[in-house]
Amino acid sequence: MTDTLDELDLRILEQLQEDASVTNQQLAELVHASPPTCMRRVRRLSESGIIQKQVAIVDPAKVGNTLTAILEVTLDVQSAESLQQFERTVALEASVLQCYRVSSGPDFILITQVTDMPAYHALVHRALTAQMNVRNVRSFFSIHRSKFNTGIALG
Fold this sequence. Notes:
Layout: H1 7-18, H2 24-31, H3 35-47, E1 67-75, H4 80-91, E2 96-101, E3 108-114, H5 117-129, E4 134-141
Antiparallel strand pairs: 1-3, 1-4, 2-3
Helix pairs in contact: 1-2, 2-3
């Protein structure tokens, strides 16, 4: 699909990654296109799956989720079904923000956001140590976030 993205598509994507709350009229002005053209382009980008969804980014500290933990998880058995079952389990956990299946090291890296250490322990017990196939969990706790961005570099 990236072959079919032209400069206008890229400008639209850059603007929406910066602030998806702009009106179609504002977006058209920002990218130097007509409002109907912008609306068609955004619809096409959404229908094709390039724009997956539009969300509000919430400051975790302002809603009481002050503990970020990055977890390395190693499973006992790495069969396709075991890996998929683990992914289904963590997908149900709201505190797990991201889950990556990785190679050369642990099987998964999880990015989690919780209120405090008791909430972290409850999450780990519920989602990880209570699972029969989890061999090891190694946790790292963020003491400072120096960069956070959701935008994808384009072009």
